[in-house]
Amino acid sequence: MAFQLQLDVKDQILIVTFCGELDHHAAAEARQPMEAFLSEGRFRHVILVLNRLDFIDSSGIGVILGRYKWLAARGGKLVICGMNAHVRKILDVSGIFKLIPAVNSVPDAMSLLEVFV
Amino acid sequence: MAFQLQLDVKDQILIVTFCGELDHHAAAEARQPMEAFLSEGRFRHVILVLNRLDFIDSSGIGVILGRYKWLAARGGKLVICGMNAHVRKILDVSGIFKLIPAVNSVPDAMSLLEVFV
Amino acid sequence: MTAIATVQNHIKFTFPAMSENESLARTVVAAFVMSLDPMLDELNDLKTAVSEAVTNAIIHGYDERNSGMIDLEAELDGRTVFIRITDYGRGIHDLWQARQPMYTSKPDLERPGMGFTMMEHLMDEVTVQSVAGRGTTIGLRKTISPVDMRWH
Amino acid sequence: MTAIATVQNHIKFTFPAMSENESLARTVVAAFVMSLDPMLDELNDLKTAVSEAVTNAIIHGYDERNSGMIDLEAELDGRTVFIRITDYGRGIHDLWQARQPMYTSKPDLERPGMGFTMMEHLMDEVTVQSVAGRGTTIGLRKTISPVDMRWH
Ligand SMILES: Nc1ncnc2c1ncn2[C@@H]1O[C@H](COP(=O)(O)OP(=O)(O)O)[C@@H](O)[C@H]1O
Ligand SMILES: Nc1ncnc2c1ncn2[C@@H]1O[C@H](COP(=O)(O)OP(=O)(O)O)[C@@H](O)[C@H]1O
Prior knowledge:
The complex is a heterotetramer, with 2 copies of chain A and 2 copies of chain C. Chain A has helices spanning 24-39, 58-73, 85-94, 106-114; strands spanning 4-10, 13-22, 45-56, 78-81, 102-103. By secondary structure, chain A is α/β, with parallel strands linked by helices. Chain A starts with a strand and ends with a helix. Chain C has one domain: Histidine kinase-like ATPase, C-terminal domain (Heat Shock Protein 90). Chain C has helices at residues 21-33, 40-61, 95-98, 115-122, and strands at residues 8-16, 69-77, 80-87, 125-131, 135-143. β1 of chain C pairs antiparallel with β1 (8-16) of chain D, so a sheet runs across the interface. The complex binds adenosine-5'-diphosphate (2 copies). One adenosine-5'-diphosphate binds next to α2 and α4 of chain C.
């Protein structure tokens, strides 16, 4: 139910997995560890894995958009992968897919990012 | 979450399985089908299977005691089997085990009733 | 997830005295105490005690007329949960008798007369305030065990 | 379990404007509509819209001061759910501007300005009543599909 975040590293790409419910209350818990890792400057690209995310609202969209803008300003890419029907619907309504590509799996996301690494 | 009841018959014994939450609201749903079956007079003994019961309170105890009294007045036996920790605790506090034997499984209950069939 | 040591939170939940709402009241209390990360056993104790008090308000306070409202207030002070369940129904004329194990004023409804016994057994404290013809308030108190004192 | 065709139920849930209570508000609404046996999709729509309105009350109504109360009222009329979320905070001075997609008065907080867009997209109707300096009430309406009209 509550929010949890998992960070993994693969080929200089930061893989972030969101679990549970990402609302305004959880936004800080999602933002801070990502910011800390990214500001170190070791990673240019991020894959955001959402298949274990049960709930999101516009506050969660704000967290994703915020990371997207940060990365974009530094030439980094963000790729989203894996979503349940509710999360896909909310992301769809937000129009976020016009900015951020979504694929089915981490390997798909890796190959999408390969050209940029 | 809501309450559900399952009725099975084995060797002239009525096996009743309670599922979900047995509170005052669900009491009628638990009582009526059992009453209907028992008043037909085809069954003398009842095994009450509680391993799929998630919640019970004193209203649920009332349902069990009511069936116990009905059967006892007609020389019938009631045996309880299978309980989660919460259900066991509430039944324990109620003192119901002084009247109604509890065993681990339906076969155990069957052999307990064998002498009476 | 970090468990916050001292939480201050207090809610009020008002609902019609219908049996459909018994499970709703349990769910609200369970969700309310979730921030304390209670053990399953503690959670079930709270749900059962709330169920007893709410059921009594419906059956005895309002005589199952499906009218009248129930107020459920819950408060957290550190790891202690305070719950008050209030009905504005008939009230209890003999409090001492009402709290006796096995006493019920409605044996015809298969009431086992164990509601107060359950609440007292499962909670740290149970208080009853009642005025005949005006209504009843049941107070429940329980302290949830500290997370780091548990066996794993 | 039989689904009751017409249910009349109305609850009021009052809680402090703290972000911890956002999930609590969602849970209460989800439990409240359970008797209608909603589809998972409909349940999530309701939870999301409630989350938006409650979050706005906390962030904008009360400027995240962790003080002030929020009232959540929910009503069932047949299969239609009416929800009202009220804060007694700063109010909205320009309603037209507030409802514009992407408009936010707090871009520094990474607010995407999509709360109203979400509510309007997910609900059948969204109403806003607000008085500057007095507070805001968001009204949400959604009809849950009949169980026997669904594909299996
Ligand atoms: N909210 C209430 N309003 C009026 N009377 C009550 C209320 N709660 C309890 N009582 C009285 O106290 C008695 C004992 O309650 P309880 O121990 O819960 O047993 P039961 O609900 O099985 O009757 C009830 O039978 C009733 O007469
Ligand atoms: N309860 C409220 N009290 C005061 N202002 C509000 C309230 N709800 C919304 N607003 C105003 O409306 C704007 C748009 O709201 P919304 O679409 O939810 O976007 P966001 O919450 O991301 O800012 C907010 O930025 C705020 O200025």
